[in-house]
Structures are given as structure tokens and as C-alpha cells.
């Protein structure tokens, strides 16, 4: 087999991972860096960051910067539209001609599905932002969410952080009473943003808006929920309900081949929010019971980086052989069986 090198890039709003494979499917190197969502950064900065990380991975693998990869798969948040995707790729070819000979590009959900199957599946991403997508074996897609922090992001870390802050504002204004005491949430908000007054929060959401910093509040809320704060528990329950609704929407369009797999329909759950499954499941499970007809559904998580799926995606789309063992890339953490 010709000794070629294929790369994969996992790019989200908060972090980016690059991985390089040789023609035997062995990992040559990895590199990690900051987020690469072109809607947040602009395409020019997005390309620069990716090129810098790919070249870092090349050097770690003992490859010169001026020898292009055979292929590079890009699985990036914000890459749902083919027109802008190709614009991003054209910029790589023009500005960084030695980076890679060919490209395959898709959303982060495309890359995550590719991690566990080349026959399609469902991915529900709940990290800084959120997105749920179904890819059927025939290539048809159905998406629910993924519209960013203004139009979407239900069930995401940002969504929960925003809900917590809004809940405090509305309760403090006596516009809408919170279902539980806001004392713990307000202390947590003050600590996270370094503020003393709710007026001090406004620059964080307007003048100096940083989505990933706001989303980081949800990790502290999960600690409070685990310690028993009712309002924090309520926010996570609501997030679980929202994520289940997104999954239920795409399940309705899933092919029989996916639904009738040996262990039922498989949903790949990606992102830091899923680490709080114990807090999400109270809202999640009733929605699956009520709004779907599936007999079995398994929730699985990756045991590797989504960049692996990006490289697989590139190999499949560009007709390059790349050996792989899907079973090593994921593990099940919950199985729903209808009574």
C-alpha cells in the first residue's frame, strides 16, 4: 500500500484537534489548539488556526511543512452549508497550497457519525453549542438545532448558562418568579463572572461577548446541581428534555436499517454536557418514551477524538483506503428499552 498521510480536524467553538494517520490506519501524531468556528472567527482566522495546527502535527510526525497531506477531513462546527464550506476549502487551496492535496468538509456532526459508522446514524452534540443530525444510509440528512447562540443551542452549555442568568434577572425584576430559590445560582454567577451587581453582567453578554466563557458557567452549575440545588437541577432537567426533543424529531425520519440494528437505534452523544447524564436523564427519558416509537435506543460516547471521524470521512469521500475498527471508537453509557 502506498505510504500516504491523511489528516482529520475536529473544530468546535472552544477547541480544535488535528490527527494524522498513515496508510495502515496508525496514528502518527496529534495537535490541539483553540476553537475554529468560522462564524465566530471569520474564515481567514479559522483557516490560519487550522493550518498552524496541521503543520504542528506534521512536524511532530516528522513530516516537512511543504509536503501536502494526501487528504484532510474537516469536521467543523458551523459547516452545515455547502456553499460556505467550499468557500472555506478554496481559501485553503489558495492561501495554504502545501497543506493538503484534497479536502473533505462537513459539520462536526458529520465527523462524529463517521467515527462510529460509514452507514450513517444519529449524533447529538451538546457542548458549548448544540446540534442534532440524522444521516441515513442513503446519505439523506435531517437536522434539528445547530442554529447558534441566538437562534438555537437548546440543551447546550451556553443554553443552560443563559437560562440561569435570565432566570435570575426575571426573578430579581419580579417579572417572572423562579421555580426555586435563586440564591445559589446568583452566588455562582457572581463568582464565575467576577461581578457584584447584575448590571455588571451586561458587558459579558453584549460589549465583550465570549460564548465559550459564558458556557463555562454550566460546569459550575452542574456542581451545584450535584450538591442538591433545586434550581440548578431544574435547569439540567430542562436541558435533558430539550436534547431528547431534538433526537425525537430526527428519529421520525430514521431508516428501518438504523432503527432495527441489533441493539436498537444508536445515538452518539458528543460534548461536555453529556458528562452530566445523571442530571439530564430525568427530563430526557420521558420525552423518548412519549414522543418516539423506538423499542430500543442506546446512547454512546466517543472514546477517541472526533478528528478520527473527520479523517475517515475524507477517506470515504475521496475513495482512499484507510483501515479502521469502529468498535474501538465508542462505548455505550445508557440503553433505553421500552416496557
UniProtKB/TrEMBL annotation:
<feature type="domain" description="ATPase BadF/BadG/BcrA/BcrD type">
    <location>
        <begin position="8"/>
        <end position="312"/>
    </location>
</feature>
<dbReference type="InterPro" id="IPR002731">
    <property type="entry name" value="ATPase_BadF"/>
</dbReference>
<dbReference type="GO" id="GO:0045127">
    <property type="term" value="F:N-acetylglucosamine kinase activity"/>
</dbReference>
<dbReference type="InterPro" id="IPR039758">
    <property type="entry name" value="NAGK-like"/>
</dbReference>
<protein>
    <recommendedName>
        <fullName>N-acetyl-D-glucosamine kinase</fullName>
        <ecNumber>2.7.1.59</ecNumber>
    </recommendedName>
</protein>
<dbReference type="InterPro" id="IPR043129">
    <property type="entry name" value="ATPase_NBD"/>
</dbReference>
<dbReference type="Pfam" id="PF01869">
    <property type="entry name" value="BcrAD_BadFG"/>
</dbReference>
<comment type="similarity">
    <text>Belongs to the eukaryotic-type N-acetylglucosamine kinase family.</text>
</comment>
Amino acid at each position: 500500500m502506498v505510504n500516504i498521510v491523511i489528516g482529520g480536524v475536529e473544530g468546535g467553538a472552544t477547541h480544535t484537534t488535528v490527527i494524522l494517520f498513515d496508510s495502515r490506519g496508525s496514528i502518527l501524531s496529534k495537535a490541539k489548539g483553540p476553537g475554529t468556528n468560522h462564524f465566530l472567527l471569520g474564515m481567514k482566522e479559522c483557516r490560519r488556526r487550522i493550518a498552524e495546527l496541521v503543520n504542528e502535527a506534521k512536524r511532530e510526525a516528522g513530516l516537512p511543512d511543504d509536503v501536502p497531506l494526501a487528504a484532510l477531513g474537516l469536521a467543523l462546527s458551523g459547516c452545515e452549508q455547502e456553499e460556505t464550506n467550499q468557500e472555506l476549502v478554496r481559501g485553503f487551496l489558495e492561501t495554504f497550497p502545501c497543506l493538503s492535496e484534497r479536502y473533505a468538509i462537513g459539520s462536526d456532526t458529520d465527523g462524529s457519525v463517521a467515527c462510529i459508522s460509514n452507514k450513517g446514524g444519529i449524533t447529538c452534540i451538546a457542548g458549548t453549542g448544540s446540534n442534532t443530525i440524522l444521516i441515513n444510509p442513503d446519505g439523506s440528512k435531517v437536522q434539528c438545532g445547530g442554529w447558534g447562540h441566538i437562534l438555537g443551542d437548546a440543551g447546550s452549555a451556553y443554553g443552560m448558562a443563559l437560562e440561569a442568568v435570565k432566570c435570575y434577572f426575571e426573578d430579581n425584576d419580579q417579572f417572572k418568579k423562579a421555580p426555586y430559590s435563586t440564591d445559589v445560582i446568583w452566588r455562582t454567577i457572581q463568582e464565575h463572572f467576577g461581578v457584584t451587581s447584575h448590571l455588571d453582567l451586561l458587558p459579558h453578554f453584549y460589549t465583550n461577548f465570549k460564548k465559550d466563557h459564558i458556557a463555562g458557567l454550566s460546569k459550575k452549575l452542574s456542581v451545584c446541581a450535584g450538591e442538591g440545588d433545586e434550581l440548578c437541577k431544574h435547569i439540567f432537567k430542562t436541558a435533558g428534555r430539550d436534547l431528547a426533543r431534538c433526537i425525537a424529531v430526527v428519529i421520525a425520519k430514521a431508516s428501518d436499517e438504523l432503527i432495527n440494528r441489533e441493539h436498537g437505534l444508536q445515538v452518539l452523544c458528543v460534548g461536555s454536557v453529556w458528562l452530566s447524564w445523571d442530571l439530564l436523564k430525568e427530563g430526557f427519558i420521558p420525552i423518548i418514551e412519549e414522543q418516539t416509537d423506538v423499542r430500543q435506543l442506546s446512547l454512546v460516547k466517543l472514546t477517541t477524538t472526533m478528528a478520527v471521524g473527520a479523517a475517515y470521512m475524507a477517506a470515504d469521500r475521496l475513495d482512499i483506503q484507510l483501515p479502521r475498527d469502529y468498535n474501538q471508537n465508542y462505548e455505550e453509557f445508557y440503553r433505553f428499552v421500552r416496557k
